[in-house]
Each structure stands twice: as structure tokens, then as C-alpha cells.
Design a protein that fits this description.
The complex is a heterodimer. By secondary structure, chain A is α/β, with parallel strands linked by helices. Chain A is built from eleven helices and 13 strands. In chain A, the strands form three sheets. Chain A has a six-stranded mixed β-sheet with strand order 6-7-8-3-9-10, with helices on both faces. Chain A has a four-stranded antiparallel β-sheet with strand order 2-1-4-5. A three-stranded antiparallel β-sheet of chain A has the order 12-11-13, with helices on one face. In chain A, helix 9 crosses helix 11. The radius of gyration of chain A is 25 Å and the shape is globular. Chain B is mainly α. Chain B has one domain. In chain B, helix 2 runs parallel beside helix 7 and helix 3 runs parallel beside helix 9. Classes of the chains: A alpha/beta, B mainly alpha. Chains A and B meet through helix 2 and helix 3 of A and helix 1 and helix 6 of B.
């Protein structure tokens, strides 16, 4: 069992993953879902020991991924978002290297390599340099290294990216075939893929787990995964709309000679962390009229006000998410 | 460690940089070997180590060719993610890469072991074998120390070029420091002497084996291998 406990990761002051907890058991395929920038890859990197968490713990069959790294990693096969391939090697040489690093005995190494090559359909290109392979084949080589040595837990970050429809079907079949003896965590943006393959869905948005349940329980009879995804993870999708609303308020403010606009809305998923502390007040708010000659009163043009809003959103990230009023149109004299 | 060592050695020998480095080391040492040991005026020396002492800076100046890709390339291609996720420790990764680079350097050094025999055959001089082989061994260890420095530099930068140029600057800096050691006294003279990698090899030119010299190079190599492990592991936390 993989136990992910209260995992947090901050990049500087920006929280990328916040208090993520879940468990993964053998015999199931877990779909790891979330919009771009939600923290999926960061979480996967932490589970596999590629990245250290700011706080929290990952236990793989009771072994801490950092304190007992070698033992824990023996049980994990990982395909990152970008397959980590040495392009000056052939798939055979590459898998030899990975197999030796995974401490597969010499006696069974080539047997196991052949087995995963067959499973992933790369036997015919075994002796070609990886740099000369198509993206689809490279992806397969990446999958082959992840499943080589029969690790109990297989973590695949968008494994079907770059594959043609036929290859996608093959990879999905491969993933399903792994289910019996393994636990598979599968990250994907393709909701149909998650629906088709996974038993359990962990949905992450803005670095937090927003749903974690069996796919049937989560979706229900009358709904679709797409709707659930949009409802649960849609906050960040709405951020773009909030930004548009903010711009509208600015225009309105200029038109009415307002001086200040409270800028505490984000303008997209990439910005959410900058204002997250002020999540209760995410919508742009037009402040009360202020009298001319206030402390911020100064000449300004409509253009300044227009560009100022974006800058203020930026200022929000630097100055903390306190939602302080920002000067956008200092046009009190207008 | 064995897996990383094999992979690294094979990859480096397939590329251009490692064979080029071997060729340059051969070329530079051979020039000095010819000038020191095969002089037409009859004053050629039977001491192969003199040629190596003369060649040490000019040959090791090209070590960045060997080390620039060690970690910079992994970072650039994101293959370091594989190394972090495999059941091997950071120390094993670093040692595997380090020993692979040292093995490349060992190829010309192994060939130099035949040079005293060559002198024996081609001249009628009495060959001081012990000093010749101590010289070759010390030259190899000096190279290993410089390789460790270059490897550490490659963990600091994603660009191979910047990694190589920084290593080059450090090597030249150490060489200059070695040359100014004699003009410095007191504390700073001691500091300059302590970090003077190239100056230290002159100690084997006095006609007797100086084991402290070998110990110095081994210590320097171990120190920078340690730094490299720390730097490699630190990236996991960044």
C-alpha cells in the first residue's frame, strides 16, 4: 500500500501541493485528475522520490520514500510526463541499464526485458537508437522501463500522450492487464481514458484533493465524469472569467471616474496561488467612491488604468493576498 | 553503481568528447615526452615523470570536455528524474559517473605505463622505474582530482557549455594560484599552497616517491565527490 500523508510542497512562497492525503492499494487503477497546474506531476514526483516534500510523508509498504529510499523505490515504476530516455542508447541498452539499476539478477534480466518489450510492442525496434524512434515508440520505451522488474506500484504521468489511437488502445489494455497484480496510478487529462480504465479517481485542484472516490460513486448514475470534473475542479477554470469581470469593472470605473479598484481576483489557474489566502473574496470588488484629492489621487489616463489592472494582479502576488486596494485609475481629476 | 558506471562509460565513449579528450591527453603528453626524453642533443632524461609534470596543466585543461556532460546533460534532458526514481542512492549515481570518467582518463595513463619500457628498448639509459610509475600514478590521481572538480561544476549548471567554461576558469585559477604560491608568504601562502593542485605534482620531481602528494589528490577528489553528491541531492529539495 502507498500511503500519502499530508503532503505539501511550496515553491518559494507559492504552495503547489497542499495537504494531499490518499492511499493506494493493489488491484486497482487510480486516475489522478486535475486541470493544468493543479499539482498532479508535483505530487507524482514526490510519491516516487524525485522531489522532496516541504512537509508530509509517503510510505510505500511501510517504507518511507526518503528514509528508506532504495527499499521503497524497488516497489515503484515511474513514467514521468516527459519520458526520461537516453537517446544515444537503443531500447535494449536502455532497459539493460534500468534493469541493472533495479537490481534484477543477470539470469532473469534479459527474460524480463523481452517480456516488457513484448508487452509494449517495442521488440522490433530493440536495436535502433532511441533518438531515431517516433514519439509513440519513445513513449512505449518509457512505459517499458516503468514496468520492468514487475514493481508493485506503477505510476504513469500521462502515458498516452503522443500515441496514435491504436497505440492508445494498446496502452490502455496494457494498463488494465497490470491491474491484477499491481496498483496503477494514472494521470491524464483525457476524461474518457480515466472513465474507461480507472476504478478510483483522485481529483486534485489548486494543489488540494477535491475528490477521492470510486469512479461509480463519484459519477453516479445520471452524471458524467466530465461534469464532476468541471464542478469540482472548475474553480480555476472560472478564474479566467473572473479576470474578464475584473477588466469590465475597470472599464466601468474609468467611465465613472472611480479612483480605486480592489484587485484581488486571479486571472487564471497560474495565478490562483497568489491570491489564495484571500479565497473568500476572490471576485473583483468595486470600492466605494472616494473623494478627489485622496492620498492616492493623481493624474492618470485610461490607458494607465487599463494596464494597471494586470500589474496590480501581479502586485497581488508579490504583496501577499491581502486584497488591498490598488491604484489603477488615479484619475480623480478627470 | 555498476549500472550507472557501465551506462556512463559506454555513452561517453560513443560520443565525441571522451575520445577527443583521450587524443588530446596523448598528444600533449607525447609532445613533452618527446621534448624531455628523446632529445637529439643527447640530454634526454630517463625520467618519464618529468614529461608528465610538464604536461599536467596543458593536458588536464581539457578535463571539462569529459565532465561537462555528466550532470548538466541529465538536467537538460530531464533524465535525472529517472536517476532519482530508481532504487539507487545519490552516492551510487555520483560514484558511477565519476569512476566512468576516471576510466576514460585511465586509458591514456595505462598507455603511458609502456613509456619507461619504450625508453629501455630505444635508449641505453638506466630507467628509474619506481619514479616513472610513481609519476604516472600521481599524474593519474591529479587528473582524478580535476575530474571531481569538473563533475561538481556540472551539477551546478544545466548548460554543458557554461559548465565547461566554469570548470575551465577554475582549472586556470588553480594553475595561477599554484604559480603565485612561491611569492606569497604567511597565511595566504599556506592557503594558496593548499589549493595548488598543479603545483603539488612538482613534489614528485625530486627523485623520491612523495606519498603525501598522492594522498593530497585522493583527498581533493573525495572532497569534490562529496560536494557533488550534496549538490545532486539538493536538487531534489529545490
Amino acid at each position: 500500500m502507498i500511503e500519502v500523508k499530508n503532503l505539501c510542497k511550496n515553491y518559494g512562497a507559492i504552495p503547489a501541493v497542499r495537504d494531499v492525503s490518499f492511499t493506494v492499494e493493489k488491484g486497482k487503477i487510480y486516475g489522478f485528475l486535475g486541470p493544468n497546474g493543479a499539482g498532479k506531476s508535483t505530487t507524482m514526483n514526490m510519491i516516487t522520490g524525485c522531489l522532496a516534500p516541504t512537509s508530509g510523508q509517503v510510505l510505500v509498504d511501510g517504507c518511507d520514500i526518503y528514509d528508506e529510499a532504495v527499499e521503497a523505490k524497488k516497489r515503484i515504476g515511474y513514467l514521468p510526463e516527459l519520458p526520461p530516455l537516453y537517446t544515444d542508447m537503443t531500447p535494449l541498452e536502455y532497459l539493460e541499464f534500468v534493469g541493472r539499476a533495479k537490481k534484477i539478477g543477470r539470469d532473469e534480466l534479459y527474460e524480463k526485458i523481452e517480456e516488457v518489450m513484448k508487452k509494449t510492442g517495442i521488440l522490433d525496434v530493440a536495436d535502433r537508437l532511441i533518438r531515431n524512434l517516433s514519439k509513440g515508440f519513445r513513449q512505449r520505451v518509457g512505459i517499458a522501463q516503468a514496468i520492468l522488474g514487475d514493481p508493485e506500484y506503477i505510476i504513469l504521468d500521462e502515458p498516452t500522450v503522443g500515441l496514435d489511437p491504436l497505440q492508445i488502445i494498446e496502452v490502455r489494455e496494457l494498463i488494465v492487464s497490470l491491474k491484477e497484480d499491481h496498483a496503477v496510478i494514472l494521470s491524464s487529462h483525457i476524461l474518457q481514458e480515466i472513465s474507461a480504465v480507472c476504478d478510483y479517481v483522485i481529483m486534485i485542484s489548486r494543489g488540494k484533493v477535491v475528490a477521492s472516490d470510486d469512479i461509480d460513486s463519484l459519477v453516479g448514475e445520471d452524471d458524467t465524469l466530465e461534469n464532476v470534473f468541471i464542478n469540482l475542479a472548475g474553480e480555476s477554470l472560472d478564474a479566467g472569467a473572473a479576470y474578464a469581470a475584473q477588466k469590465e469593472l475597470e472599464r466601468e470605473a474609468r467611465g465613472r471616474g472611480r479612483k480605486k479598484i480592489k484587485v484581488d481576483s486571479d486571472k487564471g489557474a497560474a495565478y490562483y496561488t497568489e491570491v489564495y489566502a484571500d479565497e473568500d473574496n476572490e471576485s473583483p470588488v468595486l470600492l466605494e467612491d472616494e473623494e478627489d484629492g485622496g492620498s492616492d489621487g493623481a493624474d492618470s489616463t485610461a490607458d494607465e488604468a487599463d494596464t494597471g489592472a494586470g500589474a496590480d494582479a501581479d502586485a497581488g502576488k508579490a504583496g501577499g493576498a491581502d486584497g488591498e486596494a490598488q491604484d489603477t485609475g488615479k484619475g480623480g481629476d478627470k | 553503481m555498476g549500472a550507472v558506471y557501465r551506462k556512463e562509460f559506454r555513452s561517453s565513449m560513443r560520443g565525441v568528447a571522451a575520445p577527443l579528450f583521450i587524443a588530446i591527453v596523448f598528444g600533449v603528453v607525447n609532445v613533452f615526452f618527446w621534448l624531455n626524453n628523446f632529445r637529439s642533443d643527447g640530454y634526454g632524461s630517463a625520467h618519464v615523470e618529468y614529461a608528465l609534470i610538464s604536461a599536467v596543466f596543458w593536458s588536464l585543461l581539457f578535463v571539462p570536455l569529459l565532465t561537462m556532460r555528466l550532470f548538466s546533460e541529465e538536467r537538460h534532458n530531464k533524465t535525472d528524474q529517472l536517476l532519482y526514481s530508481l532504487p539507487i542512492t545519490g552516492t551510487q549515481v555520483v560514484l558511477g559517473k565519476y569512476f566512468a570518467a576516471c576510466t576514460v582518463f585511465a586509458i591514456p595513463c595505462a598507455a603511458f605505463c609502456f613509456y619507461p619500457l619504450l625508453l629501455e628498448v630505444l635508449t641505453d639509459a638506466e630507467i628509474p622505474y619506481l619514479m616513472c610509475y610513481v609519476g604516472i600514478g600521481t599524474y593519474f590521481l591529479a587528473g582524478c582530482a580535476v575530474i571531481a572538480i569538473g563533475m561538481f561544476m556540472s551539477t551546478l549548471f544545466e548548460s554543458q557549455i557554461i559548465s565547461a567554461l566554469t570548470s575551465l576558469a577554475v582549472i586556470i585559477g588553480l594553475y595561477i594560484l599554484g604559480n603565485v604560491t612561491s611569492s606569497l608568504t604567511g597565511f595566504w601562502g599556506g592557503v594558496a599552497g593548499a589549493v595548488s593542485i598543479f603545483g603539488r605534482i612538482y613534489d614528485i620531481g625530486y627523485g623520491y616517491p612523495d606519498w603525501t602528494c598522492a594522498l593530497y589528490y585522493l583527498s581533493a577528489a573525495a572532497l569534490f565527490v562529496f560536494f557533488t553528491v550534496q549538490s545532486f541531492e539538493r536538487r531534489r529539495w529545490s
